[in-house]
Amino acid sequence: MYQILLRCSNWLATYTSWFIIAIAVVTYFMPDLFSWVHGTVQSCILGFIMLTMGLTLTMQDMKVLAARPFDILIGTCAQFSLMPLIAWSLTVGIGYFGITIPKPIIVGIILVGCCPGGVSSNIMSYLCKGDVAFSVGMTTVSTLLAPIVTPLLVLWLAGEQVEVDAIGMFLNILIVTLMPVTIGFFCNLFFGKNETFRKTQAVMPAFSVLGLACIVGGVIATVHDKLLQEGITFFLAVFVVVLAHNSLGYLTGYTVGRLFHFSKAKNRTISIEVGMQNAGLATVLASTFFVATCPLAVIPCAVSCAWHSISGTILATWFRSRDRE
After folding, report:
1. Is residue 141 a contact partner of residue 71, using CB atoms and an 8 Å limit?
2. Given pLDDT bands bounded at 50, 70 and 90, which one contains residue 179?
């Protein structure tokens, strides 16, 4: 039984993006399948995903953070400055040139841009022979700072578009991200040498991917009817903005690494860390805090959930092909 779970875990970790897309397509035609994923259930699922991230953290990772504070500082500053400003520029800023972007896209993409780095970015860094310790360090620090930084950035950049409950967002991020990560870390610290615990760790990626699929499915089920009303034009507009935001994140992240003369491995890692956001967190926040004032804001977040995994896989594969050449 354990070997079957382990194979399933490895398969889901390898084909995460395609599995998420398949769930999204199925839910579009069968919205009742994930209608139960909303509110508290959705937050609990994200908390579980963050717990699985905490279970991967070791004392060695903490030592890496202490030994390389300058690198982590540069990466984290790039994370919380480039992506929010790129999101603002693609939506609000472009309005000064006479191009009107729908409010749900503005709010959704700014929320994605203000979130910490995505958990799957560590996997992508490993696949492209990046600096995995640096990747884990950036993800950890940005996640720890998220309860304070994310609400403030959203309030600053999207406050004029829609009312933002910064205090509520702070408490939500604290509960569904920081607390589970901390619990997971201490569990690993105290039980990391236990054989049963290590076996449990090995199959956690499968449940993490399943949890992310449930969140995406739940969002699509919630906004299914409204998305049909908006039509294909709205969806294409969302995808174009998500694509531009994600791609510019990869490019500017790599540029920052070059400017500070990082190694090739670090350049790849900071590119992926900056470009890939925790869109699952953004989806939960949009569903919780903007469902009344801007319900379609969850669409850019849900699209980012799927696309960031796909683009990260593509970028990691391209980096590996450069090595072979």
Report:
1. no
2. confident
